[in-house]
Amino acid sequence: MSTTAVQDARKQAEALDNEDPIAFTRNEFNIPTKAQIASSRLADSHPAALPAFEDDALSIYLCGNSLGVQPKRTVTRLNQYLTTWATQGVQGHFKPLEESPLPTWLDADAKAAELIAPVVGADVSEVAVMQTLTANIHLLMSAFYRPDANGRHKVILENKAFPSDHFAVETQIRHHGLSTEKSMVLIDSSSKDNIISTEEILSVISAHAGTTALLLLPGIQYYTGQLLDIPAITAFAQKHGIFVIWDLAHAVGNVPLYLHDWGVDAAAWCSYKYLNGGPGCIGGLFVHTNNSAVTKEITDEKPEEGYNNRLAGWWGNDKKTRFAMANKFHPVAGAAGFQLSNPSILDITSLSASLEIFQEAGGMEALRSKSLKLTNFLEATLGQMKKADRAHFRIITPSKPEDRGAQLSLMLSDGLLDTVMKELEARGVIVDERRPNVIRVAPAPLYNTFSDCVQFVEAFSAALEVATKRTL
After folding, report:
1. What is the distance between the alpha carbons of residues 18 and 12, in angstroms, rounded to a whole number?
2. Which of 98, 305, 308, 440 has the highest CB neighbour count under 10 A?
């Protein structure tokens, strides 16, 4: 960028940051400092024990699509949980404590469901905070993928699916004694950047409609950042008798979702990206009311009637009978009936600390409003780079704001990735890479600023100049 362009971008970013109605949420997070990310030893103190850092000391952390930063209140909530455990022992399961913001452990999953439901646009009964993403996909497929080798047996997914989704589908098909060659259908993209059009998806569904049992797609494609048309694809597949599961790993906490109103059959997600739950934190699951109802009173004589069969565990049992220790499964209605074991309270406490901030920010509509401005501003600022620098990368994420979330994926020229990543880190910038040539940049509206976007572009421009000189 020219000196004038840099100055103009900085002024514009400063003005936009000053106008930001949810700028206060940035102070709710521990953003690593440049010194911290450069260090190779464990810090002596948690940031909570240190004075607040000035903004210019902080790293430019644009990696919420991979791992969100830590909410400051996470330490407080976890300490409250640990104190409860230390002072109450097993009583923490049932005993409410005065002046504690935490629910009893028996009710922790229900409280977390109340917090996550508005984030995904669901009734509280339709969501459960449980397990991890791929485990939940397996649980959903075990309940709703019922192949008939002579009828509907195929599963449709994208050709460039996240590997774990691909593995889940492969192994589910084999589990039923079928072959992936006959029962797995991959959607190919005609785009060199692997952008899959809605028309391409619907065309594949149409071609295999009579023999397909299930469709598994990502709400946002992890590599390109493309936001798929969830309601249109769902409605079209259901019209052809196909059950639809969405992997919302990159969509939850990133874009507004209306799973109930869209009639989505089921969905699963992780919580360590835009939800800031922490590395490997507990996942989530959505099952539409139409698929999770308990339609009749379950009796001990016929305990298998009145609900959709699933792999079951005691935590999915109705709370009224859960601790009766009877070997009769009486599932609670809704997604909670798909739970297996009692969930990690450590995980739920960590996730709920972040979800509190989502509430305080005004919900997903407020976050999306800022996110659209942030990513559009990042894209525009990248477009102001010198022509010589712009020749060495292109944005492969869809250009229409409504077709993407926060993330922009930048495809670099061959041979530049390693040097660019090293140079960005040296300048205090954290993004992630997808080999062989892509870096993913995701300004998260809860804690990133417009100034972060400008500083990234400045650092990226400098990194490209170093990288291109080395390849000459």
Report:
1. 10
2. 440
Annotated binding site for pyridoxal 5'-phosphate: which residue ranges? 133-134, 162-165, 247, 250, 272, 314, 342
3-state SS assignment for residue 218: strand
The secondary structure of residue 64, as a DSSP letter, is T
For residues 238 and 265, the answer to whether their CB atoms sit within 8 Å is yes
With cut-offs at 50, 70 and 90, classify the pLDDT of residue 472.
low
Per-residue pLDDT reduced to its tens digit, 25-51: 999 999 999 999 999 999 888 887 777
Tell me how many degrees the CA angle 412-414-417 measures, rounded to the nearest 5.
55
| CA atoms within a 13 Å half-sphere pointing along the CA-CB vector of 233 | 26
Task: State the Cα–Cα distance between residues 424 and 421, nearest whole angstrom.
Answer: 5
Around Cβ 103, how many Cβ atoms within 10 Å?
18
Query: What is the rounded distance in angstroms from the CA atom of residue 339 to the CA atom of residue 351?
Result: 17
Using DSSP's 3-state secondary structure scheme, residue 121 falls into coil
- Cβ(371)–Cβ(443) below 8 Å: yes
Token pair, residue 294, equals 């308990």
Q: Does residue 302 register a pLDDT over 70?
A: no
Mean model confidence pLDDT for the chain: 95
DSSP states of 227-264: BP-HHHHHHHHHHTT-EEEEE-TTTTTTS---HHHHT-
Task: Point out the annotated binding site.
Answer: 133-134, 162-165, 247, 250, 272, 314, 342
Phi-psi region of 363 (alpha: psi -120 to 50; beta: other; left: phi over 0): left
**Contact between 453 and 372 (Cβ < 8 Å):** no
DSSP 8-state code for residue 103: P
- Are the beta carbons of 138 and 109 closer than 8 angstroms? no
Half-sphere exposure of 205 (CA within 13 A, CB side): 23
| Residue 415 zone, left/alpha/beta (φ > 0; ψ -120 to 50; rest) | left
Radius of gyration (C-alpha) of the chain in whole angstroms: 24
